[in-house]
Structure formats: C-alpha cells, structure tokens
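Entry for the shared binder. Reason: the reviewer on the internal report wants the predicted structure included alongside the sequence.
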Amino acid sequence: MKTLRAGLLGRPVAQSLSPRLHQAAGAALGVSVDYRLRDVTVDEVDRAMDAWRAEGLDGFNITAPHKAAAARWVDRLDPMAARVGAVNTVVCKGTETIGFNTDVRAFAESIGNAPDRVVILGAGGAIRAVVVALLDQGVSQIEVVNRSQKRAKALADDLAPALIKTYPLESADDRIANAELVINGLPAAANEWVIDRFFGEMAPMGRVVDLGYGARVDRLKSAVTRVDRRFQDGLEMLARQGIASFKRWTGIKPPLDPVLSALLSTVLD
C-alpha cells in the first residue's frame, strides 16, 4: 500500500480538520496516510519548510498566517499561486518544491454562481484566493471591508484595482445593505464584531458565507438565519481544497462525498 507523507504548517493548527480530511481521502483510495501538524511562528516557518523538504515528505499544506511566506519560499510557483500571491499546497519533487493554490477553485465550486456585487470582510491570504475566484466568475464589483486599509489596498492593487473598492470597518453595514453575497474571512478574534452586523439589511435572498466552520461559526449562523438570510460555512471549501492537494501529492483524486461526510461527522461530534 502506498503511503502519503504530508502535513500542515500554520498557527494555530491544533484544531485543524486536515488530518481527518486526508485520512478519509486515503481510506477511500486505499492509500495509507502519515499526516502531521506543526504549529510555527512567522520566524520559524522557513526552517520548518526546510526540515520537511529534507525529511522527504511528498508535500504539505500551509495555512494562516504563512501562505504568503510559502509563496516566497518555494522554488517554483504554479501560475494560479503566482497570481494569488499565496500558497496553500507545496509539492516536493526530489529537492524541488512547487507551490500551488487550491483554494481558488475550491471556493468557486463550493459557492456556485456569484452575483455581480460581492462584499468581503477581511483581506488576508485566504481572501486573495476568494477574490481571484470571484474575478474569474465575472464579478464586476468587489467591496473589501478591512481594519487595515493598507492591506486591503495592496490586495486591490495586486489583483484588480479597477474592480475592487476598499472600505474601513465602520463602513461595513453600509456595504452590507442590499448585498446578495457577503463573505466573512476575518479571524475568529473578530467574531463578536461580525455577528453584530446588520444582515437583515441584505437583499431578501442574501447569503453570508463564512470561510470558517464548526462551533466558531455557530453564532454567526444564528444571527444570519434569524433575519431570514441564508448561511454557508467553509466546510465544503475545506474538503475541496484538501482533495485537490491530495491529488497533487499522489496523482489520484479522492471522491468528495466520503471526505465531506467525515468532516461533517467530526464537526457534529
């Protein structure tokens, strides 16, 4: 039986569902999986990637806050990762490392068709992938609300300055008004602020998508559904990006249903 050797670097990672995801993917394909987690600071991440490459891993995933650092570290970038400026999947081929971004397609497939105008809360590494996915769908107006206007403007300038407008946090409720789709990519520390937003002012069939999942999003889900708007978490996106990583490492694509079912059962437990 083939063994996949991979892992996840980020901070924090203790609660990550990635080990469960890849174990389920391996079980569906008859592949043994050795998947480890490593919590590293921004000062440690390059050394950690060096160590895993030297150890001979097939590859590894990168999560916040290290996706941009991984894009700088790899020997070569896939065109999509280069466009996004963030890497969530590293493939090791001998001594060469190649950086990929599987978040873009995973997000697009998980949300389906997006409206012409989308409001985004946050401007981190995951949001860069979200924005690229929306641009590729033909979204013509993207409004990014973020505490750091410098970071938001850098995102807009890098990806599509003519189509992306940036706003400070105090403008959030004005931007949410009449929106059909709001995407939350802010860190968990901002949860209390997010749940107080005026989601009842969204379009009648408006949808809020949170890139998080599990207990972290329960209160936001309640706040959104209480005002008769739709809510979607990031679990399907997680499953799809992990499946794409698994295929990059092994050449075999796992089926979605057993992976998503394993994640759902873990979250519900």
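Summary line for the report: The first helix runs from residue 18 to 29.
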